[in-house]
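Students often ask why inverse folding is considered easier than folding. One informal answer: many sequences map to the same fold, so there is more than one right answer. In these notes we will look at a single instance of the problem. The structure comes first.
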């Protein structure tokens, strides 16, 4: 069976697990301190981000998801700066607490910069001028904050207008940029970006939560083992979340039809061997589609295909697939032929009754009706294999077209439609 990857749920869970881990009691055989005493576990979680983030960048680049690649690179850079006892490049800051405050301010600001520019910067590749510009925007807040700290402007790292609590050591500006990123994410029109941003927001919340815990440990460059465990878990969760989002995007490209959002022919081919013993196969074809395209243009034709796909998806009770061109397949498991005929007849009549507004090039908008022809065949009897069932449904479809279109025809085992 093809994997049915859900949107952002698992990725959000990966990102939020470190928060759950931090809430464990410190003492006891299963407490956080007991976990932190396992050197193998601490080293594994501390080293995992160095594997996950490069893999995430590679997959994002392969899938042409430049913004996801930039986010992964930013997190990778921040982790490389934050995790070692002697941070590279930025060794002038004294203790981990100030390092956490700086990165907690720069990281959500960098995330916001990456996605607030979607209208103006649309890089096709990471290794391009626009790709480098996006990466520079992501790092710009970090450069500003570090420069300000080096110049002596350090008060804003602990600026607290709204949140004033002994358990809160970060600047309120960190929360402001986090909320800005969430707002920018909610306004994204692209569904793939919204799904990725939901995961990225969860990763930000988790990382900021751990940064706050680290910032509360003041006056020392060395962190207790449980903090090292938590920071490794936070960034490992973020890396797993981004990697999952990348695999989901790969899955969508491999198994989903981009126009209709239905599973494609490849998904159908992989589902067929796992069908139950009792099912009905429906072949659906949009009537006179070539003539419609010639008259109204391919854009209007795409709109028709999306409309038909939506009706098949929600109206049949089965699983609809884009078979190719203007043709669709619907698999109805554990369904009899009379039941399937009634379902497809309902969809057919609903489509025929619906008026669509279309516009031919150079003409005024007009109302049109879309009809479909349907052929049905059931597994069993003479039709013992999926290939035979599909061919029988095709024969019934051709009979529906020969009989005048806009109808449902059932293939019977007694000799055809």
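Output (designed amino acids):
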């Amino acid at each position: 069976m093809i994997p049915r990857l859900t949107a952002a749920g698992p990725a959000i869970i990966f990102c939020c697990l470190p928060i759950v881990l931090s809430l464990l009691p410190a003492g006891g055989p299963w407490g956080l301190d007991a976990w932190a005493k396992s050197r193998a576990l601490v080293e594994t979680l501390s080293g995992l981000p160095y594997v996950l983030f490069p893999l995430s960048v590679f997959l994002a680049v392969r899938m042409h998801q430049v913004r996801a690649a930039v986010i992964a690179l930013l997190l990778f850079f921040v982790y490389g700066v934050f995790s070692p006892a002697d941070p590279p490049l930025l060794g002038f800051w004294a203790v981990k607490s100030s390092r956490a405050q700086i990165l907690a301010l720069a990281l959500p600001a960098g995330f916001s910069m990456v996605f607030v520019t979607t209208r103006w910067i649309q890089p096709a590749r990471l290794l391009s001028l626009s790709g480098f510009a996006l990466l520079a925007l992501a790092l710009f807040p970090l450069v500003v904050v570090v420069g300000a700290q080096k110049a002596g402007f350090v008060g804003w790292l602990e600026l607290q207008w709204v949140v004033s609590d002994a358990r809160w050591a970060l600047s309120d500006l960190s929360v402001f940029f986090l909320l800005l990123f969430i707002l920018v994410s909610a306004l994204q029109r692209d569904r793939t970006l919204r799904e990725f941003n939901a995961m990225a927001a969860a990763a930000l919340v988790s990382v900021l939560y751990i940064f706050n815990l680290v910032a509360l440990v003041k006056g020392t460059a060395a962190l207790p083992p449980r903090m090292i465990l938590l920071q490794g878990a936070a960034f490992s969760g973020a890396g797993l979340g981004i990697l999952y989002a990348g695999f989901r995007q790969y899955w969508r490209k491999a198994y989903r039809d981009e126009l209709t959002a239905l599973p494609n022919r490849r998904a159908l081919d992989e589902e067929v061997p796992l069908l139950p013993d009792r099912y009905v196969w429906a072949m659906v074809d949009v009537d006179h589609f070539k003539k419609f395209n010639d008259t109204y243009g391919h854009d209007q034709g795409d709109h028709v295909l999306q409309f038909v796909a939506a009706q098949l998806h929600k109206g049949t009770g089965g699983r609809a697939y884009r078979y190719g061109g203007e043709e669709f397949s619907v698999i109805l498991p554990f369904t009899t032929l009379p039941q399937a005929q009634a379902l497809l007849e309902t969809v057919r009549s609903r489509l025929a009754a619906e008026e669509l507004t279309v516009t031919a090039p150079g003409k005024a908008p007009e109302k049109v009706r879309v009809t479909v022809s349907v052929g049905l065949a059931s597994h069993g009897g003479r039709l013992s294999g999926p290939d035979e069932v599909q061919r029988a449904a095709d024969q019934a479809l051709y009979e529906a077209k020969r009989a005048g279109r806009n109808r449902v025809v059932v293939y019977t085992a007694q000799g055809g439609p």
